[in-house]
């Protein structure tokens, strides 16, 4: 009796002389089963209660620990002992070919047992099963879940998929109700593959709900190279504006999503159907949440399976192997999570991310604790190693050779300036000569004996060069040690000098993003149009976000095309660099009445 509906809840009414049939006993069973399952679903939820951990015992065998779980109808699924299965023994294995990932799922099922002779049944039904065994089915699927259904069944609100591909999926969630002045969280679930490069994303757009000077929300995240999880949640905290009752989209005009995966870059304006209600007080918020907390919400996702593990697959020689296992990728777990919501026992899990800062920036750490889930997240900002800038100089010195026998003789230059000023410098030297075969000029670095052989060109100079540097004077001397006879009366020595610098202010200045708008001042008639241009320096990203500061000051698109309003006045046009939120510039336009 695999019931899928909770309602109506009916029970037998007994009286003397009542004829009991199969239907009456089925009602009796259903009454107790439904009430127990409904209580499980509403009070505990759905997920793993204990055990059911998954690991790869070898490249094509999975070990599933014994344990118990509740499905989305409140039914118990039990593995009374560990289960060892080859991939090929699991349902769904035939669909794995050609896929990089798969999911190991668990669903409730029933099996009829002990067929017996049935007395007094209709024709053709003289055999019936005496027992029904409650079981669980473990199977493989390559289809990712419908994230909206899965997350809403887990209690997430305002779920919206921002980006979906075979390598990465981003899902946004925000509370449906907040109140003015409250700090609320926007969460993004990141689902990626094991071999997917570290992800960076930024979601930016105007918001009427967030208390910020710019009136915008910017959700930016850089995954640390040390982060090995394939499924995790990133939280962003914002303060709501102190406004009266109102409904508004989280992003008024949609948002610009910019992301990087290794060398892949994606940028697009997207619609984000996430709408929030801003209450006046905390009491109104609690009352509104109570009204919306109904059975329809609590009983979502009745047909959803439990996702026990996310498997990274390796395709080789026509076979499929397990490359990695992520247990409970979507957090379908009970027990510790539910206890943390009712007891003050501190965080149940701690996660970390690491951001790379410029070397002149101070270390930074942020912490976010979610009481509902018991999760504590630390975000560390670590300065990168100190960077150096270099100035370089190049020149030549002609050394006159002595007459007579030159073997094992030494020649030195006078003290000369290397051109980089006082301080320690690094000098590299090379000897110039003309190749007799090709008549090309060649520079020799190191020992010319390396090139002596039958199959290698021979250098006509067998000598070594060295330099003495005088840091206080900014000068140097070059010396030459002749090991053999040298043709001609002189040898040209090339020097290459470089000097490290730590001019932090100059390096910071190079990285400063600046923006300039043209024209800075202009006039236009009411309802007229005007083209603005923004030049961005200090960043490879040249994109800008345009807006009109005044609410009724006209409209401007993201290409800088401005349309004036019907009302005359002076209005401010603002351009913000996509690469740096603080890099803004303004231009002013005077809107005049049309001449009659």
Briefly, what is this?
The chain is mainly beta.
Walkthrough of the structure:
This protein has 596 residues and is mainly beta. 10% of the residues lie in helices and 47% in strands. Strands 8-7-20-21 form a four-stranded antiparallel β-sheet, with no helix packed on it. It has a four-stranded antiparallel β-sheet with strand order 9-10-12-15, with no helix packed on it.
Main beta sheet strand tally, sense and closure: 4 strands, antiparallel
Strand content: over 45%
Question: C-alpha Rg, in Å?
Answer: 37 Å
Distance between the termini: 83 Å
Mean pLDDT: 84
Structural class: mainly beta
| Total count of helical runs of at least 4 residues | 6
Topology, please?
Elements: H1 22-44, E1 47-51, E2 54-58, E3 61-64, E4 67-70, E5 76-79, E6 83-86, E7 101-117, E8 127-141, H2 147-153, E9 160-164, E10 168-173, E11 177-179, E12 183-192, E13 199-206, E14 216-222, E15 231-239, E16 246-249, E17 255-261, E18 264-270, E19 275-279, H3 282-292, H4 295-298, E20 306-316, E21 319-327, H5 336-340, E22 349-357, E23 364-370, E24 375-383, E25 389-400, E26 409-412, E27 416-417, E28 426-434, E29 441-444, E30 463-470, E31 475-482, E32 490-501, H6 504-511, E33 514-518, E34 521-525, E35 529-531, E36 533-537, E37 544-548, E38 555-556, E39 561-563, E40 569-577, E41 584-592
Parallel strand pairs: 11-19, 22-24, 34-41
Antiparallel strand pairs: 1-4, 2-3, 3-6, 4-5, 7-8, 7-20, 9-10, 10-12, 12-15, 13-14, 13-17, 16-19, 17-18, 20-21, 23-24, 25-32, 26-31, 27-31, 28-29, 28-32, 30-31, 33-36, 35-39, 37-40, 38-39, 40-41
């Amino acid at each position: 009796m695999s019931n899928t509906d909770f309602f109506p809840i009916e029970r037998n009414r007994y009286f003397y002389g009542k004829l009991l049939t199969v239907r009456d006993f089925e009602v009796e069973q259903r009454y107790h089963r439904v009430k127990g399952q409904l209580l499980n679903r509403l009070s505990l939820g759905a997920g793993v209660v204990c055990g059911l951990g998954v690991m790869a015992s070898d490249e094509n065998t999975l070990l599933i620990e014994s344990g118990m779980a509740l499905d989305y109808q409140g039914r118990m699924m039990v593995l009374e002992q560990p289960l060892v299965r080859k991939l090929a023994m699991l349902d769904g294995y035939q669909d794995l070919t050609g896929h990089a990932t798969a999911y190991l799922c668990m669903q409730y099922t029933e099996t009829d047992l002990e067929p017996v002779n049935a007395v007094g049944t209709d024709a053709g039904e003289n055999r019936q099963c005496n027992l029904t065994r409650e079981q669980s089915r473990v199977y493989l699927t390559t289809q990712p879940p419908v994230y909206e259904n899965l997350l809403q069944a887990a209690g997430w609100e305002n779920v919206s998929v921002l980006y979906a591909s075979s390598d990465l999926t981003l899902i946004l969630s925000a509370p449906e109700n907040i109140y003015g002045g409250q700090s609320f969280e926007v969460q993004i679930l990141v689902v990626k593959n094991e071999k997917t490069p570290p992800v960076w994303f930024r979601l930016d757009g105007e918001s009427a709900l967030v208390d910020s000077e710019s009136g915008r929300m910017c959700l930016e995240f850089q995954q640390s190279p040390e982060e090995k999880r394939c499924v995790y949640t990133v939280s962003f905290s914002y303060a709501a504006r102190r406004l009266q009752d109102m409904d508004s989209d989280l992003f008024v005009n949609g948002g610009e999503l910019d992301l990087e995966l290794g060398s892949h870059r994606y940028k697009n304006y997207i619609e984000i159907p996430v709408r929030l209600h801003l209450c006046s007080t905390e009491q109104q918020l609690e009352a509104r949440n109570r009204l919306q907390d109904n059975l329809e919400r609590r009983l979502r996702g009745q047909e959803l399976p439990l996702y026990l593990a996310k498997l990274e697959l390796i395709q080789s020689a026509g076979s499929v192997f397990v490359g990695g296992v992520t247990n409970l990728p979507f957090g379908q777990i009970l027990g510790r999570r539910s206890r943390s919501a009712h007891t003050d026992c501190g965080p149940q899990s701690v996660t970390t991310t690491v951001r790379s800062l410029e070397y002149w920036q101070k270390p930074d750490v942020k912490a976010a604790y979610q009481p509902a889930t018991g999760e504590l997240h630390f975000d560390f900002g670590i300065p990168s190693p100190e960077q150096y800038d270099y100035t370089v100089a190049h020149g030549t010195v002609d050394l006159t050779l002595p007459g007579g026998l030159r073997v094992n003789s030494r020649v030195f230059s006078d003290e000369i300036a290397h051109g980089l000023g006082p301080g320690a410098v690094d000098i590299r030297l090379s000897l110039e000569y003309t190749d007799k075969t090709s008549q090309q000029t060649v520079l020799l670095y190191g020992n010319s004996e390396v090139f002596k052989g039958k199959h290698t060109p021979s250098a006509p100079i067998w000598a070594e060069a060295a330099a003495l540097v005088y840091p206080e004077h900014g000068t140097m001397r070059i010396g030459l040690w002749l090991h053999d006879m040298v043709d001609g009366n002189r040898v040209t020595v090339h020097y290459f000098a470089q000097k490290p610098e730590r001019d932090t202010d100059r390096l910071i200045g190079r990285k400063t993003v600046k923006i300039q708008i043209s024209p800075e001042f202009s006039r236009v008639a009411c309802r007229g149009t005007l083209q603005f241009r923004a030049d961005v320096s200090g960043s490879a990203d040249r994109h800008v976000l345009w807006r009109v500061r005044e609410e009724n000051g006209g409209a401007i698109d993201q290409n800088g095309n401005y349309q004036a309003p019907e009302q005359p006045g002076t209005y401010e046009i603002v351009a913000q660099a996509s690469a740096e939120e603080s890099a803004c510039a303004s231009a002013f336009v005077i809107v005049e009445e049309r001449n009659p």
